[in-house]
Write a structure and sequence with these properties.
98 residues, mainly alpha
């Protein structure tokens, strides 16, 4: 759950967190840089892919073909789904299950 805070309150909270955990800004910066890299690569893949159209009533004779899926943009961000997806991705990266 998030809480609306003023700029001054946010700065005070950040300073307090940095006092308790001095390396937090460095960790956050590295995590943000990694997130930007992943998002840039994902964006590049979406621009490179072409939409797939299916023909009703026809089955492909070849198995193992490439299927490309494109996401539909939504006007509102579903933060719960985003957090769940990031958590599942991180768990997959370290070889654990949620």
């Amino acid at each position: 759950m998030t809480k609306a805070v003023s700029d001054d309150e946010a700065i005070a909270l950040r300073k307090d967190a940095t006092t308790q955990e001095p390396s937090l800004p460095q960790h956050a910066g590295r995590a943000f840089a990694q997130l930007e890299t992943v998002m840039s690569a994902a964006l590049a893949r979406t621009h490179d892919s072409s939409p797939v159209t299916a023909q009703p009533g026809r089955r492909g004779k070849r198995r193992g073909g490439t299927i490309r899926v494109r996401a539909q943009a939504r006007p509102e961000i579903d933060y719960e789904r985003l957090a769940r997806a990031l958590l599942e991705s991180a768990m997959y990266e370290i070889g654990s299950t949620p």
